[in-house]
Amino acid sequence: MKVVVAIDSFKGSLTSIEANQAAAEGVRLVRPDAEVVKVPVSDGGEGFIDAFSSALAGGKMVETVVRDPLMRPVTAKYLMKDTTAVIEIAQASGLTLLRKEERHPMVTTSYGTGLLVADAVCKGARHVIVGLGGSATSDAGIGMLRALIDTFEKRGQFSDIDELKHVRFTIASDVENPLYGENGAAHVFAPQKGATADEVIALDARARKFAEVSARHFGYDRSSMPGAGAAGGLGYAFLQYLNADRRSGIRLLLETINFDEIVNDASLVITGEGSADRQTLMGKLPMGILQQSGRVPVCLIAGRISDRDELLRAGFAHVSCINPEGIPLEEAMRKAVAMQHVSETVGRVVSCEE
């Protein structure tokens, strides 16, 4: 029996690597002779560079001091192999870098992400892959652009930063929202980052104004492109100013690691995420795993399950909640508890497949 384990992080509880390890232990509890292949995964958010680290053999992690969303010094890392750099914006501009009372998208900035990009380019990167997930910002990427200008000393000349003209950018995100409007970055995502109703309106107006000015400068407008609203509008800055391509984060990763070959002779694939519901079917990581697994049965586990019937109809062979009913959230999110529950759940799933 060959089991492929590719579970997303359980935010605030387990990384993808930890969840995979717990699942592998669950497989071996009931099938000690099974071959277990662990595939760290991410769709652009937490764990993105770790997932690509496994995919890009020979790559190395580069550490540099940048700025967090409140412009405080923070040590961040990115992956570098030859002339390809993989950046996870959460390293510099992530919501997890802030305490709850510090979440304030009217003032948080993506400046640190720009410093990460600049550092990679200065070190020879000519293809920069950027995972857009988990941001604390809603500045339409203005902070990132300012950092690039400051670094390359081309103040005010966005389109003439010579060092960036020969760099190819790929943004990895499954978010399809435009920059502004009722489905834009501010209205959909800013409340999760601490914005009040009035601040959402102000942020949306600021993004719209920036897009209008940018369109006049360039002669084209990419603010309504799918993904422009990702990461508080960072997607727009990459699309409009750096001519980035947008790819599904999970599809990009699975192509890089030749996932089709990994699952070709598998008996079972186990994937999962913190919370699974009908939104899972809208391009989230487990759905990407399901679509790339062909005829191999795919089992979905999660810390919380809603819309189970819809998930089963979509093609998942099993949909299992790892937590017993009534368990307090704080207890369920403890790392040791979560790992035990993942292991036990996977053991039951594998037993059903025998």
Description of the structure:
- This protein has 354 residues and is of the alpha/beta class.
- Helices cover 38% and strands 19% of the residues.
- The protein has 14 helices and 11 strands.
- It has helices at 16-30, 48-55, 90-93, 111-122, 142-152, 185-189, 197-218, 234-241, 249-256, 259-263, 285-292, 308-314, 329-332, 335-353, and strands at residues 2-7, 35-38, 60-67, 73-81, 84-88, 127-131, 168-172, 245-247, 268-276, 298-305, 318-321.
- The strands form 2 sheets. The protein has a 6-stranded mixed beta sheet, with helices on both faces. The protein has a 5-stranded parallel beta sheet with strand order 2-1-9-10-11, with helices on both faces.
- Strand 4 (73-81) and strand 5 (84-88) form a beta hairpin.
- Helix 1 (16-30) crosses helix 14 (335-353), helix 4 (111-122) crosses helix 5 (142-152) and helix 9 (249-256) crosses helix 11.
- The longest helix has 22 residues, at 197-218.
Which key terms come to mind for this protein?
354 residues, single chain, globular, 5-stranded parallel sheet, alpha/beta
The SS-based structural class is alpha/beta
Helix and strand pattern: EHEHEEEHHEHEHHHEHHEHEHEHH
What is the mean pLDDT? 93
Order of strands, widest sheet: 3-4-5-6-7-8
Structure summary, number of beta strands:
11
Percent of residues in helices comes to 25-40%
What's the arrangement of secondary structure elements?
Blueprint: E1 2-7, H1 16-30, E2 35-38, H2 48-55, E3 60-67, E4 73-81, E5 84-88, H3 90-93, H4 111-122, E6 127-131, H5 142-152, E7 168-172, H6 185-189, H7 197-218, H8 234-241, E8 245-247, H9 249-256, H10 259-263, E9 268-276, H11 285-292, E10 298-305, H12 308-314, E11 318-321, H13 329-332, H14 335-353
Parallel strand pairs: 1-2, 1-9, 5-6, 6-7, 7-8, 9-10, 10-11
Antiparallel strand pairs: 3-4, 4-5
